[in-house]
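Dear U.,

Please find below the material for section 3 of the report. The protein was modelled together with nicotinamide-adenine-dinucleotide; I have listed the sequence and SMILES used, followed by the predicted complex structure.
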Amino acid sequence: MIRVALIGTGGISPVHLNYLQKRDDVEIVALCDIKPENLARRQEVYGGKPFEDYHDLIDEIRPDAMWLCTPPQVRREPLTLCAERGIPVLCEKPVGRDFDEARRTADALSKLEARVQVGYVFRSMPIVQRLLEARADDHIHLVQSFYGCNMGITRSFPDWFYDKAISGGALIDQATHNLDLLRMLMGEVSEVRALAANPVQTKEGGYTIDEVISLSLLFADGPAGSHVHTWVGDTWRNEILLIGEKRIYRLGLGSGELTIEEGRETHTLRQDQSRMYEHENAQFLQRVESGDWSDNVCSFDDALATLELTLQADAAITEKSA
Ligand SMILES: NC(=O)c1ccc[n+]([C@@H]2O[C@H](COP(=O)([O-])OP(=O)(O)OC[C@H]3O[C@@H](n4cnc5c(N)ncnc54)[C@H](O)[C@@H]3O)[C@@H](O)[C@H]2O)c1
């Protein structure tokens, strides 16, 4: 039995806990949150010993694996405490809000030979693996990425998401998923330009996020691309279009569909989106069980490079607005 624990029982935690609860070989032994109401809500459903302080949890329970689902300011201490005790961690993205702080965390984790998988969930999706296979004999020179949702209109998320200083807003909290996947698929970005605007609500009070963002990207290996993002759209959508010499690939990250167009032929592959987060969790548990981290799908250092790119894009917005 793999004894697992989770810190941060907020919005994202059930997608992990639902899967962990279904596994016969996993026991949820402890949960932790500084907000008793969040902790109680999850503990009722998933069990585990409740803790309001992760120091106590880590020292008393010593789980075989940890899930870290706190806001990005809470990373270094729980990660290093786990590393010191040899506990592998699935750490939610992003790896921080501030680059220097995240780099210090990376340095500390490296010294401790920490085993950390970062939750860039798209990397583990079956349709992304199929895309990698399908485009192996092609050359892609242009990509167009779009992620949209309506959370700027509904204001249904916890307040910290709308405070750009804390969450980083649409770019650093969310576009980071697409930028991370673009790095994985297309290599490093050498140049980024950025524009942003707030067409619905001006920035004031606790609402300081950019509502719509447009990025232009140049990749070091030659391709060009773009990413556009909205928090004031109709609903949740996410797709990336990759234009190759032989084919066009439509990667529906929201719909779970990969459509490949080659001449007049069109092939569509579908994955079960209700199980989208299961793949990264299954891969993490596989590493925990085997002890083999040679194929870690997203190391802390890799995710740090994504944070650096995201912050560069954000700095580009700031320059444009000045
Ligand atoms: N991979 C994804 O698709 C995805 C989706 C949503 C959120 N996330 C990421 O997951 C993280 C959490 O997001 P969320 O939506 O669950 O936020 P949330 O605010 O709903 O939940 C965070 C929880 O962490 C708790 N917390 C804060 N500091 C703590 C501490 N020191 N010790 C213990 N608990 C603490 C809060 O009380 C809260 O319950 C963020 O980094 C976010 O970007 C990832």
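For the text of the report, you could mention the following: The radius of gyration is 20 Å.

Regards,
Y.
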